[in-house]
Specification:
CATH topology of the largest domain in chain A: Nucleoside Triphosphate Pyrophosphohydrolase
Shape of chain A: elongated
Order of helices and strands of chain A: EEEEEEEHEEEHHEH
Distance between the termini of chain A: 22 Å
Number of helices of chain A: 4
Largest interface: A-B, 46 and 45 residues
Radius of gyration of chain A: 21 Å
CATH architecture of the largest domain in chain A: Alpha-Beta Complex
Number of strands of chain A: 11
CATH class of the largest domain in chain A: Alpha Beta
Oligomer: homodimer
Number of domains of chain A: 2
CATH superfamily of the largest domain in chain A: Nucleoside Triphosphate Pyrophosphohydrolase
Chain lengths: 215, 215
């Protein structure tokens, strides 16, 4: 930022009176230009035992695989942003579930919010995707994922899914009521907070270096 | 926005090529000025049966009661933002728990994120507060709360707490093991996802009109 977006005069970077951190300040009109983190909203679209990934057609990380996600826009909700990005990148409609990963990236001023979602119907590559496809767990291209946020979200998902399957296996050896309960877990997952709880975490520069060479 | 913050020339508001919504565009240097929602992070500080509220010393809603919360800054995490705001507004340290309410306010481009927190030690009014105090449920100044986000967060908290108490009451009439389990619920609440789950919702202009006269 070099100029004041209100009056067009040059700005300076300094701590405003009564504040405790530097901002871009306009001495001509008095505007303080606050800058704040941005939300990246997206989904983990699930279809039976498979998940949907998009191969990026644009920088950064062109050619690498990602979950559909992007910057939340003004005048929309986080849920609307997640569904819009899923449509734009994969032409996929989803039954949106609960927030699943909340990941802070403080060194690049981003907050990732990925929602569980049940895929409804078909899909195809949107303008920002080269290809969109469904993957079984053993098919996930772990070495060709676009971002550490995506890797982490998928890791949580498969760990939680294994935990659900293990409980189901135990229940299968128990009562009919337990079996019924366990069977419910194999239906749409998007709204099952108990089995797929919110995972909050932070990604640091070293996590991103594995992907970008430098963070 | 009237001028380009990069080069100082006048901007225009129009849909960029390949985009689907209007942005501030600089024809001189080609910069597209994206604008995105801001996160308001804060806490619901709990001390035994009481919660901490702050009486606002600044506009908007000066003199009304709020939970400690404010805009998340660049280079911090949502948790750090929530703890910083709790310190700045109430000089209160907290043991931060899980995200408790996620509230979208699309018409003012804000996303509220309030975390459950156990209050540690003392507190006093920070520069943006006239007064800070602990309230029992029956003492909450419902008609003098600053924002609908605060009202909603407190409503969720008391509903969840009643639900925990009701289960405890049932358990008291059952086995010793159940009693032990129920007794655990009376300890610090901040990390108990099962009893105090994430509540996601949206606040619309009409909800804010009750507070602001107009949204």
């Amino acid at each position: 930022m070099n100029f004041c977006s209100q009056c067009g005069e040059k700005v300076r970077f300094a701590v405003p009176e009564g504040d405790d951190r530097s901002r871009y300040l306009c001495d001509a009109c008095g505007t303080i230009h606050y800058q704040n983190p941005r939300i990246v909203a997206g989904t983990l679209p699930i279809s039976g035992s498979k998940v949907l990934l998009c191969k990026r057609a644009i920088a950064p990380r062109k050619g690498y695989w990602t979950l559909p996600a992007g910057y939340m826009e003004n005048a929309e909700t986080t849920q609307q942003a997640a569904m819009r990005e899923t449509w734009e990148e994969a032409f996929a409609e989803v039954d949106l579930g609960e927030l699943y990963t909340l990941i802070d990236l403080p060194h690049i001023n981003q907050v990732y919010m990925i929602f569980l979602a049940d895929l409804l119907g078909g899909f195809s590559a949107g303008p920002e995707s080269l290809e969109v496809a469904l993957f079984e767990e053993h098919e996930i291209p772990w070495d060709a994922l676009a971002f550490p946020t995506i890797e982490r979200t998928l890791q949580h998902y498969y760990a939680d899914r294994k935990s659900v399957a293990d409980r189901k296996s135990v229940a299968d050896r128990k009562s009919v009521a337990d079996r019924k309960n366990a069977a419910d877990h194999t239906a749409g997952v998007a709204r099952q907070r108990a089995d797929y709880p919110l995972h909050s975490s932070t990604i640091m520069p070293e996590d991103r270096e594995r992907y970008f060479g430098s963070a």
